[in-house]
Design brief:
This protein is an all-alpha fold. It is built from 14 helices and two strands; from the N terminus they run αααααααααααββααα. The protein binds benzoyl coenzyme A (BYC). The site of benzoyl coenzyme A has 29 residues, from helix 3, helix 7 and helix 10.
Amino acid sequence: MYTQAMDVMAREAGGKPQPVKSAETLAREAAFEARIDAGDFIEAKDWMPDHYRKTLVRQISQHAHSEIVGMLPEGNWITRAPTLKRKAILLAKVQDEGGHGLYLYAAAETLGTSRDEMTAALLSGKAKYSSIFNYPALTWADIGVIGWLVDGAAIMNQVPLCRCSYAPYARAMIRVCREESFHQRQGYESLLTMMTKGTAQQKAMVQDAVNRWWWPSLMMFGPADKDSPNSEQSIRWGIKRVTNDQLRQKFVDATIPQAEILGVTVPDPDLKWNEVRQSYDFGVIDWAEFWRVVGGEGPCNRERLAARNKAWDDGAWVRDAALAHARKQASKQDAA
Ligand code: BYC
């Protein structure tokens, strides 16, 4: 007998029919799908299909890695911030990104994957992190543009994740989004200052940074829906609430009016307002570049991985000391 559940399994396994599942597993799967359809949130202790668990570990750990690697391009400018105020803001922002990484690793750990396993996957180059962090931050204007465009794109993508069907991820995202919102505003405010009070040279620096970060920011949303292998299932399970292309369009529509206020242009000759759709049409993304960067061949991929590996090696004594302290405390408690 060929059941509907077997169809699902066959799709998951690339078309090959799989062995029949037990009646108990089928009942659990049906109950799980019914909870998802009813808009229920799934907690760590609840039963879930393996593929749901794996998809979440993949997405949440990639997200955590992105936050941690994302500290590098901006961290590089902390010592060179132009004023004490800008330095304090940047320091707080980079610290926030570290915090986001920690909430997200903790959320992924609730699914049964250890932090050590996730870290090992990042350090070996096996795990993905956002393509955007493989581009260099060349000038101070890049710091403003990262806040405005990169954090802006991140918020667009992450606000719907506050309603992700997996509750521990959704809860982490609520806090992350509050902080990202401050990050976006500080970036925009810093650019506005340069564009309204800056010299011609500073204004040109902002425009140059926008020219370099615009297309990579649009790539952050992932491949076009038609080329996104994970989207359909993730949307069906309420892991992703909005598709890659829909989010990208929302980002362009929200950002172009902000660019006009700033007095900068985006490097897209095909950008134009579409009266019928009440939305912007924009040019074709260079997907070959996107896949090159995702595949490890971006301008800074090697540098980023080397920096994370060095940080891990340099931090070995801290981890050893913390472990020795914890062991000592535990043996004291045992003796008492
Ligand atoms: N970069 O089927 P798809 C931040 C991969 S951090 C690299 O559409 P999915 C911030 C994708 O993983 C920003 N890889 O996948 C931090 C998949 O490969 P695998 C990070 C990408 O998961 C510091 C393949 O391409 N935000 O905000 O349904 C400072 C096919 O894609 C990218 C998050 O991680 C990419 N851009 O959708 C400032 C948000 N795009 O895994 C800011 C959470 C796709 O099958 N993540 N790939 O080997 C998501 O929302 C989704 O995972 C994505 C991709 C929309 C990114």
